[in-house]
Design a protein that fits this description.
alpha+beta; seven-stranded antiparallel beta sheet; about 180 residues
């Protein structure tokens, strides 16, 4: 076997193996359909936040998360407009409760594993995802009003490519404003 052919075979083998390399992906899929609406490859230490407007208090609630070394979602902090109406009222061991200058409450120092989370998304409540320093994502723009299942799952570059290609031409790429009304 000549050197060019050997290098070509090795390159093909490396590309094939790379396509099967395991990745960990933070994903949001709609239920009951199961279509992935948001996917993001994650690494330990990555952080993101989920926010919404509380239905009774009409003020923002923000929950903060990080990805740990076992690729688990860990809730680290929550900022909310006071207690009651489904909002936190007590701190756990090692957590601190603080009243913020804007009148919001904050529980910090949390280390609460969240294996998966079913999010009720409604346009009226401005459900928002912020990943790191990226621009906020309005989850209703992606999924309308409904339920999104959030979890970290294993994937490969090949599976992610298939996911993106299957969404090509879909309203995920072009926005939902012209294709769906939520009135």
């Amino acid at each position: 076997m000549n050197a060019k052919r050997l290098i070509g075979c090795l390159a093909a083998l490396v590309l094939a193996a790379g396509g099967l390399w395991p990745l960990h992906v933070l994903g949001f899929r709609d239920l009951p359909g199961g279509r992935w609406r948001v996917t993001k490859v994650v690494a330990p230490g990555d952080a993101f936040a989920l926010g919404y407007t509380h239905s009774v208090k009409q003020r923002p609630v923000w929950d903060y998360y990080t990805v740990d070394t076992g690729f688990r979602i860990i809730q680290t902090k929550t900022v909310f407009p006071g207690t009651g109406f489904g909002l936190p009222s007590e701190v756990g061991p090692g957590e601190t409760h603080t009243l913020l200058p804007d009148g919001s409450d904050c529980i910090d120092g949390m280390h609460r594993p969240v294996p998966q989370l079913a999010l009720r998304v409604e346009r009226a409540y401005r459900n928002t995802l912020v990943f790191g320093d990226a621009a906020p994502i309005d989850l209703s723009d992606l999924a309308g009003d409904g339920v999104l299942d959030m979890r970290i799952h294993r994937s490969t570059p090949i599976q992610l490519t298939i996911h993106f290609l299957s969404a090509y031409g879909d309203d995920l790429w072009h926005g939902r404003s012209s294709s769906k009304s939520n009135s």
